[in-house]
Amino acid sequence: MNDTNVQSTVLERLTEEWSALTPEAQKAARYVLENPRDVGVSTVREIAEAARVKPNTFVRMARQVGFEGYDDFREPFREAIRRGQVSYPDRVRWLQEVRRSGDLGGLYADQVAAAISNIEETFAGISAEALKSAADAIWNCRQVFVMGVGVNNANARNFTYLASTGMTRFHTIPRAGSVATDDLAWADNRDVLIAITCNPYRSEVIDAVRIAREQGVKVVAISDSPVSPIILGAQHGFVVAADTPQFFPSSVSTIALLETLLSFVIAVSSEEIVERVETFHKRRHQLGIYQEEPR
């Protein structure tokens, strides 16, 4: 078994045992799950300080997943690259310092590198089988509710907009003048909720996912951690990388994942989707919505 597979096994085990861990152990496990590449370069004292727990907490956690101690536990993470954990205001201050120093070329390079890295990291952890399973659930359901607030509201609306060119059962929530939990009032096990939120997690998205699960709605969760409150317990959970030199989590990998998920929905759909999309765009041409090329 190579280091990548060993690392995945360790992370999966931590996720599976999450509910059995003490609050202190959960703090340690969360840090490992969200910062696996930080583990490979840290001593037990360094990572304990970063996670704000005692070193023995990491030692006990390592033993719980089958290792003799922290040194053995961190071996699968040796090739990791450190991931930053700074606040949004601190990132804004840093961006201002970059501007004053005139090093905008460096900032440009960092932004491009982060965008590419986020996409690579996201799709490295997602299988085609997992996407197909979620796509099947979406295609075969009665209604699809797509929820994101803040920056993810635009991502949710874009997904619904693209889907609407060939399908009619997609709805972005919360609707204008409503709240998401009301929009889900009559949803049941025939429906799907696609929920999106990254740290700091929005309480209204967490509440909507909780209500949806209570009503039997299938949940497709997109977030930045395997122990995100919306991914835990979701039928289909996808972790996106959102690191960036910018002051707010990046949406690049979220958008890429949503576009890929929609392409899978189209791929598993019935043949009528081709005619529907063609009819939709033909109508746009007829209404003059598209600027026609000169003949």
N-to-C CA distance = 61 Å
At CATH level 3, the topology of the largest domain is: Rossmann fold
In total, how many beta strands? 5
Count of helical stretches: 14
**CATH architecture name of the largest domain:** 3-Layer(aba) Sandwich
The CATH class of the largest domain? Alpha Beta
What is the structural class?
alpha/beta
Q: What name goes with the CATH superfamily of the largest domain?
A: Glucose-6-phosphate isomerase like protein, domain 1
Largest sheet: 5 strands, parallel
Low-pLDDT stretches are: 78-87
What would you say about this model in short?
This protein is α/β, with parallel strands linked by helices. It is built from 14 helices and five strands.
